[in-house]
Design goal:
Helices cover 25% and strands 30% of the residues. It contains seven helices and 15 strands. It has a seven-stranded antiparallel β-sheet with strand order 7-2-8-1-13-12-14, covered by helices on one side. Strands 4-5-3-6 form a four-stranded antiparallel β-sheet, covered by helices on one side. It has a four-stranded antiparallel β-sheet with strand order 9-10-11-15. Helix 2 crosses helix 3. The protein is globular and about 50 Å long. It starts with a strand and ends in a 6-residue tail after the last strand. The model has no long low-confidence stretch (mean pLDDT 93).
Length: 305
């Protein structure tokens, strides 16, 4: 069944409240997916300091100290990395290019699973009820300009941290999905043949890697999601975030629930209205259900739907 929430803040005065608002939204969806949950936060400079890149990962049994030493050894001459832990997730930040830090982490920690990377993004995943995980992630204290969350009821793969959403496989990119893709195995084979490596058997990861592949080839987010609609069969509501905004799309019959709310201060999306009910000024929001196969996209400059 799964639950999706996303919040894009237009008013900088709300940035300190991002985590609190997102936590309320996520926990309202807890009964839609009580087995695991994940969140992504954009613009929290305490988690990803200005001028730093960050890699979020599932490091396994390695300690934070050993992890920091491994990354330090892989980045000779670079300043000390900032390492923070949240349950099974660890975020490593350093004042280097994102691709440089990503290569250092993968080279020094080959058994770890990277779950997100970029210059403005921290990703957290875990098994358990969303309310408990929100506390583990210290979500209430998070700040920033954008965030998304997902509560999972597993249908296509095992309940593991690797199988949790969001799937973040491109720089500052995330995807969360409610539904299932019928032809994911075929597209997975095509992407593997093109050199993509997968971290789980989750069908949603196939969608994330397809979108990342299209973005890497120069398509914008709206075009990438239109191409996804052409290639993927199944039932889905998708929320995809990037370094400058987010986008929503549903399948051709709009089988999976979704609602969007907009005010001058924010744009929000959720699987059900109850996740939006406590947002400031929601009583004055424009509320609507996204149409089938129409891509709704917002940037930090404005809407492009």
């Amino acid at each position: 069944m799964c639950g999706i929430v996303g919040l894009h803040l237009r008013d900088p005065e709300l940035y300190p409240q991002l985590g609190r608002l997102l936590e309320t939204m996520l926990c309202q969806m807890g009964d839609r997916g009580p087995d695991s949950a994940g969140v992504a936060v954009y613009g929290d400079h305490r988690r990803v300091p200005v001028g730093h890149a960050a890699v979020s990962l599932l490091p396994g049994t390695i300690s934070a100290g050993d992890l920091a030493q491994a990354v330090r050894n892989a980045l000779p001459g670079a300043p000390e990395p900032v390492v923070t832990e949240a349950g099974v997730t660890t975020v490593v930040a350093a004042p280097v290019e994102a691709e440089v830090l990503l290569a250092a982490v993968r080279g020094s920690l080959p058994h770890a699973t990277v779950i997100g990377f970029g210059t403005d993004l921290a990703v957290y995943k875990g098994i358990g009820h969303p309310r408990e995980l929100a506390g583990t992630y210290d979500l209430t204290d998070a700040q920033g300009w954008q965030g998304l969350g997902h509560t999972r009821m597993a249908t296509e793969s095992a309940v593991t941290p690797q199988g949790c959403h969001p799937f973040s496989v491109g720089p500052d990119q995330c995807l969360v999905h409610n539904g299932s893709f019928a032809n994911h195995a075929t597209i997975r084979r095509e992407l593997r043949a093109a050199g993509h490596v997968f971290d789980s058997e989750n069908d949603s990861e196939v969608g994330a890697r397809f979108v990342a592949d299209r973005l890497a080839q120069g398509e914008d987010l709206e075009k990438a999601l239109r191409l996804l609609c052409e290639r993927f069969d199944g039932f889905y509501t998708l929320l995809v975030t990037s370094a400058d905004g987010f986008a929503v799309v549903r399948d051709a019959i709009a089988c999976k629930p979704a609602i969007i709310a907009e005010t001058d201060r924010w744009v929000a999306m959720a699987s059900e209205y109850r996740a939006l009910a406590e947002l400031p000024g929601v009583e004055r929001a424009r509320l609507y259900e996204p149409e089938p196969e129409r891509v709704y996209a917002w940037t930090r400059e404005g809407v492009t739907a």
